[in-house]
Structures
1.
Amino acid sequence: MVKDPVCGMTINEKDAAGSITYKGEKYFFCAPGCKISFIKNPKKYLIEHYLNKIDKSGQLKNNRKDEES
């Protein structure tokens, strides 16, 4: 499962309405409109996307989970 960086919806990669590789990383979208919005202004959505991955202490949420398991 992946998260659409535009709307935040969690989707299955196989069911994605579209995808794009931007600066070496692949992003998946729930609808064509989200993909178009991303293409028009990727920095806007990537800032929000990465800020959502950081907890209050400044650590990546995924990394903290791995350390706590």
2.
Amino acid sequence: MFFSLHIIAIGKVQNVFFRATVFEYAQKNNLVGEVKNLIESNKVEIHIQGEKNEINKFINWLKSNPNSIKIEELKILEKQKIKKLNFSNFKIIY
């Protein structure tokens, strides 16, 4: 069983290599999905899927403000169990 999350990270998350940091974490931890900047300069959108344990570790990692990134609010808009992954890899959307 896998989990799928739709997340909005708000704070100092643009122009600080946040998307690249999320990409590297996802690659190392067998997570799939995508990350992209939103029009608002302080928001990044993340769609991420993987095993429950890895998803929970990812959320905790985000809450730790990795690499001096300042996440002020983490909105989990959707969390659901899924039977199969909808993404084959993790990518940064430009």
3.
Amino acid sequence: MLSKELLDNLLKRATGYTEKERTIEYAIDDEGNRKPIKERTQDKVYPPDMQALKLYLELSEQKENLRELTDEELEKEKIRLLKILNNA
């Protein structure tokens, strides 16, 4: 089954998002120790991803269709998918 977390992350990627990105530059001092000399934080923009949107819509629709199936229909679908996996 599809997890809510997976669908949520797929939707996030499909619609685009912004995250903080932190970069630290280091220098080596006379004693050979690494010391930070510059730190920069900036917003990293991830644009909407159409492939992720397409996949999200397909999976969401598939999830809704599975909810409508009876137990017998779900069992048949399970057997069909297992046959596909075993032949792969």
4.
Amino acid sequence: MATNLALTPLCSTAPVVINGEPTRKAAVTLALKELIDEMHIAISSVLLGQREQLFEGVDLPALSYACTQQVASPRAMHVVINRQ
């Protein structure tokens, strides 16, 4: 089942409660602990705008996640992360 964990810019500029969690980091950590078994992430370079670190401060190995596949394509790096 595909899950879109896109968090809006509002989450980074104002205090927001997401699923009972007061911060974006807490919401992402909760989702990783309880809801997500596999993630397919396509990473593509962007030269304009602000960067956002999706897993900043989140210890994926401590949550039993590991990178199981990496594939480079002409426009992106595809990474699959699974719960072990």
